Every structure is written in C-alpha cells, then in structure tokens.
Amino acid sequence: MKERIEKMKKTELLKKLNLELFDKHQLEEIFKGLKENLDISWYAKPEFDFVQMEEIRKGLKNKVDVSIYAKECYCDWQMNLIREALEQGLDLVAHLDNEMELEEVSEILEGLEEGLDVSLYAKKEFHAGQMAQIRWGLKENLDVSIYAKPEFSMEQMKQIREGLKANVDVSLYAKPEISEENMSFIKDNLIELSKERENRENE
After folding, report:
1. If 82 and its partner were Cys, which of 36, 69, 107, 187 is the partner (CB 3.0–4.6 Å)?
2. 76, 48 in Cβ contact below 8 A?
C-alpha cells in the first residue's frame, strides 16, 4: 500500500512538470531522482542543464543543503566544487567570486581542505598560480603577507617563498620592480652567504 501511495505521489509530481520543456538528458536526471526518492523540485527546472541537475541530485542524495548552490548563478563546475565542499562540512561559497575561473576556485577548496586561512588569497585579484604559491607558503607556516600581493607575479612569489623557507632576508629583493630572474640570483647568493656564515660559526 505504501509503495502504491509513493508511486501515486511521484506520478502527481510529474504531472505538475511540463515535461515537454526538458530534453532527454534532463528527463533522465528527473527520473533518477524519483527512483532515489529525492525531492526533485530542487532541480526539475528547465533553466538547469542536465549536469547542473546531476550536481543537485547528488547533493540531495548525500544529504547536503542544496539550497546553497541550486541557483542559476552557478554553473555546473561551481556546483560540483560547492557540493564537494559541503560534503566535507566546508564553506566554499563564502570565498567564491563569480569572476574566478575553475583553477582559482579549486585552489580555494584545496586550502579549505588543508585547514588553511584561504581569506589571504581567495581574491579575484590573484590568478591560480599566485594562489598556489600563497597556499604552499601557508602550508609551510611562512609569513605569506610579505608576498601575498597582486603586484608580484607567480614566479616572483615563488622566489620570495623559497627565500623565506631558507631563512634569508627577503626584504632585500621582495620588490615588484625586481625581475624574477634577478630575484632568483639574489636569493641563491643570499642562501650561499648564509651557508658560508654557518660553516664559519661551526668551525
């Protein structure tokens, strides 16, 4: 009897939808949701393509709050990353900017997964390569504030980060007007001088 009632409910729900507005792939997601006893009203909307529908369906199946991302403003890959974050109990939306590309949002999610303070680089002024350098610095417990600035290129950030790791005085070259090539040269020589000093002190 219960199964019959459920079947009737699903049929009634389908009647409320204008099925002619959906393509085959969208219909597949709608029927998958029905078979999984999910509330398809969250995604059974023509404005969502079938990949967006799938991301919302997966979120419902995994019992996350799909209201956070079941919105037209999010494309399929954004929905995917938000859903993955929610499944881990992470708040990606708070750091999301719609001007960011997939690689940038992925860097933010990775930082959240690593328990880092992503607010230091979750900014549209940074591209993915710069974000990665800041994230690596945070993982290494370095003072990333020295180079977490949009005026530094990814390579310049790398040279400053490596200098911080080597405990040299990066203030001598952490300047946007110094090319990454010259930064590398200065950094390498500072490391060499530091090693020479250590050797003399150990003699």
Report:
1. 69
2. no
The structure's pTM equals 0.81
Contacts of 162-167 with CB under 8 Å at 24 or more apart are 162/187, 163/187, 163/190, 163/191, 164/137, 164/140, 165/140, 166/190, 166/191, 166/194, 167/194
Residue 53 neighbours by CB distance under 10 Å? 27
Summarize pLDDT for 112-158 with one digit per residue, the tens.
999 999 999 999 999 999 999 999 999 999 999 999 999 999 999 99
**If we measure between CA atoms, which residue out of 130, 112, 113 comes closest to residue 121?**
130
The secondary element (H helix, E strand) that includes residue 113 is helix 102-113
pLDDT tens string 149-200: 999 999 999 999 999 999 999 999 999 999 999 999 999 999 999 888 777 7
Contact 40, 54 (CB under 8 A): no
What is the rounded (10 degree) CA torsion for 96, 100, 101, 107? Answer: -60
How far apart (Å, rounded) are the C-alpha atoms in residues 67 and 161? 40
Number of C-beta neighbours around residue 176 at 10 A:
12
- Spell out where 1-73 has E strands: none
The CA distance from 10 to 25, in Å, is 19
* DSSP helix, strand, coil percent of the chain (3-state; round to 5): 65, 0, 35
